[in-house]
Model the fold of this input.
Amino acid sequence: MFVKGFGTMAIDGVFMHRLVNILQESTPLKINRITQPSNHEFIFQCFAGKKMNLYISTHPVFSRIQWTHSKPSSNLDQTHLLTLMRKHLEGGIITQITQYGFDRVVEIHIEHRDEMGVIRPYRCIVELLGKYANVIIVNEDNTIVDALKRISPFENTERAIVAGSNYDYPPQFDKRSFFELASFNPAESLRSQFNGISPLLEKEILFRLKTQDAQSIIDELLDSNSIYIYETDYHIIPLTHLNKEPKVYPIMEGLDHFFHDIQEQDRIKSHTGDLLKLIRRELKRLNQKLPKLYNDLEKAQDSEELRNYGDLLFAFAHDLSNGHKEITVTDFEGNEVSIPLDERFNGKDNARRYFKRYQKAKTSLSYLEEQITKTEERIQYFSSLQTQTEQANVDDAQEIYEELISQNIIHPNRLKKAKTNKKKKLPNILKLNYDEETTIFVGKNNLQNDRITFKIARKHDTWFHVAHDFGSHVLIQTPSLDEAKIRLCANLAAYFSKSRYGSSVEVHYTEARNIKKIPGGHLGLVSVATHKSIYIDPDENQILDFIQEHTSKNQ
Done:
């Protein structure tokens, strides 16, 4: 199970020192390919007896460099820096990975053979300095080739980061090396004396110094191979001052676990723009529009009164002259009725005006009823998109984006791949091999749901969907449907729905032949002729473990 959320601290210089030492142990490495999953991320796909992915994030909150076992997601379209990396670094050999003092500055030394066969040395300098985090390519002459974030001399007169200028390290404060921690001055804060210490690590060191000597703390930090993860904090030694039980992982694996969810959301935003924000904005607009339509409908339904006023004026006041603001007449049932008049017109003209308003209101009734139906359907559609996007990975979110483009709801101004891909890819359906005879398909957006239900499903396959809510179409193909398989599929349907964190969630299931498309309805909306029900408590651990063990290639 992944740890939710992200820490209140960035990786500090001491933590970075241990990371760099672990990275250095694997050199030399050949760079086979460089990809950029998001605006803030780069992955160097390397080889050193085995495939190894060097991950770099310059995100202002969770910047880091590490080996990652996470599956690389789709690549962004070509960016200026990625193009230069592929030209000057791809195919090269990483000879060394070093740290600048105890600062969060890492240098990846690369030897690359150019098109003339000459070996050229480069440095890929990764500055992980919070919101100023950057990746800078420097050649053998210490000249900047280019950078992720360019800083002109007008922005910073002391340290420009532009192509063609000399590279200068970030300014260092007058602090001592962390190796000298044993000689600390108790009258001053540790952070003001030594490089690489974060506020969190300072608290831990001061807490430990009450019972432990400084050198043993240094040794533990420099030799650690584990990461200790708490709810919102982490480090490479136990944070004993928190007085809580941590989750313990190997360092690189633990970083993958800790940052998985927020990292995925950042990638989604990079690939699709702020898709979730767009969907929520449209939902807000629709929810504001609907009450106004109902209010207009209520007014239009009062149109019979307008017709009655017209009839009474023609019957009892047709010869009334203009100049009257109101007239009281006795209606056909003997009741007195006061009729407002426009004093500019006579009785007949006022009657005609009432009939005209009546016809207009009557005509608007059918229009308003149609608009209310369409608005309610659109609210349902965008509510389902909201749930799908909140639970999406990069590929799922990209399909949602493409779905909105295909329906002319948004303009493809950010997703260039939607315009350039000639061969349309099949939806990224989650396919699970239960056993040799049984396969389960899980749809996580409308494109996937539609394909599962109307392309993959055979008429006697069993189809699952959470009741009265938005969620996944789950399909099982099996020669024998038993209770364990029913409960598993119901669990999947409930988990991949708006009711993910609910309890006793009702799930409908039926044969696929009982599912029909709604004519003119939005993609993913279906009608069910008949069904059975099962109630399930979604079990996240069971779902994630099962998916990890049984995931197959996409259908």
User: Anything to note?
Assistant: The chain has a mean pLDDT of 87. The radius of gyration is 33 Å. The longest helix spans residues 347-390.
